[in-house]
Amino acid sequence: MTPLTVAFCTFKRADRLDRLVASLRAQSCPVPFDILAVNNNSPDDTLAVLDALQKQPGAALRVVTETAPGIVPTRNRALDESLDRDILVFIDDDELPHPGFLAAAYDAIVNEGAQCVGGSVEMDFITHVRPAWLEDDLLGFLAAVDHGPQRFWIRDSSTPIWTANVAYDMRLFRDDPALRFDPRYNREGADVGGGEDAIMLRALLAQQARIRYRPDMGVQHSVDAWKLHRRYFLKLHYRAGLRQAQLSAPDFAAGWLGIPPFLARQFFSHSAKTLGLFLTRQPGLIRQAMNAAHALGYLQGYRQRATQRLT
User: The whole model's pTM is what?
Assistant: First the structure.
């Protein structure tokens, strides 16, 4: 049995797969590993590219197609395909691993006793120019991760790691068949939002799983051009607020149209602050506009939930 699998889920990124697979095959790892590609019904020539890559030398490449649309069923398919492995390492199809990526994941789980481990995610602005308004505090919303140069144990969600580069001790999923990425947080195609990896992190924290941060388990993340626009950040936060209200908000005392008055006040307060920053040209405008978008999404999601309860 191959002890370790490194998996990527892919949709319509055939042009990136040659370099990704070559970079993974160039990795040094203390144990044999294979590569798993989970194709999510890509309409381009993804399967043809993967077929050609399977015939090249290096670590074996397994290819499966998940027909259910979205990142959640695709990630869960990778879990199911790797239940007989000791370790499963995820990387995204728009990333490239730094040297030592797999070795760090293996070391954290086997030698440090981690059940889950993740690393740094560095933004790649070589292909697309970084806009002047994209301040450092916004990079996390593009999946950037930089918790410093030291290793540490993650105790809460204030220092998150994402499926951009995360590894699991597969006993977690063999011992608990219900532990899977939550389908309520699915994201299809080029949609925004999701949050399935954040929910998985919270589930593991609730189980008091041993979660490790390893800065040497790094990847370089290529940012899509369509994400380098203000509207992407606003839509992302609107959708986050919408889902949070629909799926996890407590029940509040109803107000007009089923909307609790304090939610309306929050939205108008954030909107007023956004307008003030715009008129005075002060810094922080985009971040404040994101707060307003989240408040609007939360308000809308709560109203939808209240309406559904009445029907």
Answer: 0.91
